[in-house]
Amino acid sequence: MKHWLGMPIAVALVLSACVTINVYFPAAEAREAAREFVDNVIGEQGAKQEQEDVELFPEEPGGMARAPAAFHPLMLVGIAPAHAQDQPDITIRTPAIEAIRGRMRDRFRGTLLPHFESGALGFGNDGTVSVRDAGKIPLSDRVKVNQAIADQNRDARAVYKEIAVANGHPEWEGQIRDVFARQWAERARSDWWVQDASGNWKQK
To answer: What does the pLDDT read at residue 8?
Structure first.
């Protein structure tokens, strides 16, 4: 009798497990959202540059790839847990994100672009703009360029955080940043400089 009395409690514990299912990070959706954002900032010509032959950021175990399905207690009672496809796509269209995107686009095309073309600047492996060769920046432009870099990187960090928050998962901020870092590098134009995962500069 005691054995059967314990069954409702066990079933309740199994069913309650559904509320603790970990929400996976939607890497593919994040990558597409980041690509759209990056192409809008650096221009359509950047969208034509694909990085097919060089893997600047090798996949890390447990990183971008989706992990295989794991055992879940609900399987014992024939109930399938929620899967990745049930989750909404990453959104990058909120007023705050659009405002940041507009600033980054105008600043990039208005101030930073010529210095990417000259090789003075490059995309860092942390999703920011970095000075690669300060000697290529004319003295008369250095104050303006350094300020633009600082503002661009501040906005970049803000948008990574805002995207995570807008999608209801602030804990995704680091992963969003990593996805964007890959996209800045992959969508960079030919002859621009990017940092690989080890911090080495490479010209596309």
So the answer is: 54
Supply the DSSP symbol for 126: T
Distance CA 11, CA 167 (A): 32
Q: Which residue has the tokens 């990017």?
A: 194
- Return d(Cα 138, Cα 147) in angstroms, integer: 14
Structure tokens at 61: 């175990």
What is the average per-residue pLDDT within 132-152?
97
Read out DSSP for 37-75?
Answer: HHHHHH-HHHHT----S--SSPPPTTSSSPPPPPP-GGG
Hey, which residues does 1 pair with through a beta bridge? Answer: none
Q: Where are the alpha helices (DSSP H) in the chain?
A: 2-5, 7-16, 27-42, 44-47, 95-107, 113-118, 142-166, 173-187
Q: What pTM, to 2 d.p., does this model score?
A: 0.72
User: What contacts 89, CB < 8 A, 6 or more positions away?
Assistant: 26, 29, 33
